[in-house]
Design a protein that fits this description.
By secondary structure, the protein is mostly beta strands. It is built from no helices and six strands. The chain has a three-stranded antiparallel beta sheet, with no helix packed on it. A three-stranded antiparallel beta sheet has the order 2-5-4, with no helix packed on it. The protein starts with a strand and ends with a strand.
């Protein structure tokens, strides 16, 4: 089963954003990752300089991704983007 959890807003000049997802009881992570979800596709240029700080498991049941936003450039965005941590979880046999 794939699980995803969104986290706070990613905006130019803002603070790093961390998203964490945890597998349900009785399951473990076999893989994971993240997505940056834009509320408006035209915001992509303003967020193009974002950098990945961390993306990986923090335990056998938790995956975490941290994105550092780009510096403020004066470009306005419609709304801050969301960082979504994703995990592929399987039952423990």
């Amino acid at each position: 089963m794939v699980y995803g959890v969104p986290s706070g807003g990613l905006a130019p000049g803002g603070t790093p954003v961390t998203a964490t997802v945890t597998c349900p009881a009785g399951s473990v992570i076999v893989n994971g990752g993240f997505d940056v979800v834009l509320s408006d596709p035209s915001d992509a240029a303003a967020l193009a300089g974002a950098t990945l700080l961390a993306d990986g498991p923090t335990s056998s049941t938790t995956w975490q991704a941290t994105i550092v936003p780009p510096q403020e450039t004066g470009q306005q965005i419609a709304r801050p983007a969301q960082v979504v941590a994703k995990a592929l979880c399987v039952p423990v046999s």
